Input
Amino acid sequence: MHRSSLPLLGLALVASLSLRSQPTASPEVVPSRTSTPSLLQPAPVTSGTLYSTPAPEWNVRDAFHAAEAIAQPAWRPRELLVQASQDADFAELARDAGVTVVQPPGPSGVGVVQVPEDVSVEAALATLHQTGGVVHVGRHGAIYGAWSSNSWSSSSWSSTSLWSVLSTWGAEPQTELDPSVDPVGPRALQWHLNDINTVDSDTLSDFVVAVLDSGVSYGLTESLSSVPITAPLDLVDDDLVADDEHWHGTHIASLIASDGEVHGAARGVGLMPVRVLDENNAGAEIDLIDGIYHAVDNGADVINMSLAFSPGYAPSPALLEALEVAADAGVVMVGAA
Output
């Protein structure tokens, strides 16, 4: 049974679903801040300050250029998402349409076919539209882990240099409640948990957050080693070991549930790792659809989807139906925004 109401799980778990597209803003349109120093132009390092590592020099224009340089396609090449009627023979209808089955229908009733090189995608779509037993057919969407440019995630940034950037916006570490906390250590970065009034972890032990991402390396991550794991699933490699071959999913899971030195926003919840992204932080819409059904069927209270879609993408009816099923089941859905 899903609960009709949830306690505050932290800022990361109360946003309404907003599956976002990657940045498309013109490089000539550069956001600016006039009231506070910009996060994108960190203050210079000077002696006696709270930080030690110089922040990289970059700005929003650089970020937009980087985004354009690594833009990803909105659709899986020459793949179509096909929803067939329950009594249809998927292999037979694919054969009749002259396409190859890549992935037969799973719990969602949706499968994937590939168009041969000597046939245009448009022609294959037209043929399948006229094929008996096909309920819907469309392009197969590509999904990605919500990302920022390398400038945003530079490994040269230490926790103390990050605090230097936060301090340029007037942020102050919430250490008055615990004078023993090092004002420049990792726990000083937890001021946001106090500011968003996160609840005590003991009240969250009955809740499960499904993380649809690149997997979660919970067995190798000390801050997640004590977190309860429920119904893990790898839809990329089709097994029950949702190990993370990228950094993204473990990073997101840690932001949610870390029980390490820096706490997650919803410390105390259980995790349901569902791998829908590969080692390149990319995946397929069919796995997202099946992942949502898996999370609902296995009792997730929250589904976190820190995902991005390239410009031009539009969700399939099958994905919209999966989201509706989750909503009707009382599941809180969270997307990157």
Summary: Helices lie at 60-69, 90-97, 121-129, 159-167, 191-195, 248-257, 285-297, 317-328.
